User: Fold this.
Amino acid sequence: MTIDHSALRRLIRDIFAAAGSNHHEAERIAFYLVEANLVGHDSHGVIQVSRYIERVREGHLVPNQKVEIVTENEVLTVLDGRLGFGQVIGEEAMEIALDKSARFGLSLVALRNSGHLGRIGDWAEMAARAGMVSLHFVNTSGGGILVAPHGGKERRLSANPIAAGVPVKGGPPIILDMSTCTIAEGKIRVAASEGKSVPEGAILDGQGQPTADPQTFYASPPGAILPVGGHKGFALGVLVEVLAGAITGGSCSRPGTKVVSNNMLTLVIDPARLRARPEFDREIADFTAWVKSSALIQPDGEILMPGEPEHRSRVKRLREGIPLHPATWKALADVARSLRVRIH
Assistant:
């Protein structure tokens, strides 16, 4: 089935309002979850709704929180998310980062103890829309341990995404948004709910054997996700644990808690403080043209810069609607009924 993005946003907003979120929070959660579906990252979209509601009921996600400033100076801020919804907490953290970078040319924000921050590329896009370059490192301490170390078969690290954004004058920004593991856990859940396989070489089963069956990931003993690129992805994942987990005052991945909290280290740079803005814009345009001028492997192929596939998906799904698997729609309908939310 397909559903119009506006109708889907209204439904998600109403669900979270019924679960205790104020209007602003319910609207921001709905906006960012549906946005993930629009850009084609369904694993970080409305499939997360039932999980979020479950965490609220367990007390692991707390409605109506705002970031707490732990310490700050002109360019550096340490924030505590107080287990609030990441769609609100992340946006507030980015507003602080963008304000400081606009005033001083550079900002570093260390956010700890946030609820799930969703698609990290959203925060890179937010910075790019403000004309800023940004870097983001995120880990999920405690309950979010999913990834085996290189050479191991048991979960020890978080998925540990890295995101970055570069503004592009007159076009969609360059956006890097990647996990340091082979596949996002949300994509495994999507595959499991839709009865599909995951790519070969992405996960191990509970015995440490390679498998394409997503159900084995959730079996007992559980499976594990592999680092992307073997030892290189593992090394990146370790670095993210340090930057997002240790430096922020949150924690690196470790056993002993079921609470899934995100930590994020964000660096925002105003490129206009380093060189004239027209020169920067020209450099990015010239570089992009140079990259795209490469001879193609396939005659009908195309070279897309990072972020362009998401931009095209958004245009298409805004026009044609968002495709939802029946299992995802059923889960949404079940949650809505449990909260006495009317489905229009």
